[in-house]
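Researcher: Here's a chain I'd like modeled. Treat it as a single chain, no partners, no ligands.
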Amino acid sequence: MNTFNRLQPIGIFDSGIGGLTVVKEIIRLLPNENLVYFGDTARVPYGTKSDSTIKEYSIQNTKFLLTHNVKLIVVACNSASSVALNEIKSRTNVPVVGVIIPGAMASVTASRNKRVAIIGTNATIASKSYDREIHNIDQHIEAHGKACPLFVPIVEEGWMDHEIAYLTAKEYLHSLEKFSYDTLILGCTHYPLLKNVIRKVVGENITLIDSGIETAKQVKNILSDMNLLNSSEHKPNRKYFVSDLPHKFKEIGEMFLGEKIESLIKVEI
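Model: Modeled as a single isolated chain. Structure tokens:
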């Protein structure tokens, strides 16, 4: 039996600050929704961890969000979406949305030459989760992945516009040129924060797929279908939790979101 109500918050978790790219799109698309965000900043990055560790962390994060009576959970971490999504879904009756399928669907629609490149963490690329979803939609598309593990710590350090970010992007993306792709999936929610430097490296002719935008659309569709969209005119309640370094999270997060983070609490999971 559906016991959810419209005023319940949407729960979102990520390995760190990258999930705010999804939060920003949810706020843009669903400005009335209450939100609870958890960034596991003490244990970032997830993409270099084993599958079993990522699953363990993801289950802990999910349990934390459930204590806040959320009506939907967004796994705003590509690594967790790649290896732990089914595990999370099996442990709750709350709808769970990952970021892989929305990004894959958008890439298939966008690609003109049927060549899609994916950049992500070691865990995401090794799982071939994007490749599988792309081929499920269109088996004629060629997909090629490239792990870019240094991107996450660069973002967490706040160096999005630093020369280090540009040189790292140039080094990683150079090896993809021979693949002749026309569409690039930013397969980690941290990576849209590097969109400017990635665009400089790949040029204007490559379509960049931001899974956060596509995931927000899916969240809206699910809540609409369940008649759970929040239509309240009250100011939305947005709570942010981190496992470490709240000051850094607040500084970078406010800069990116373009609004004050009024409620930020450090917690132990």
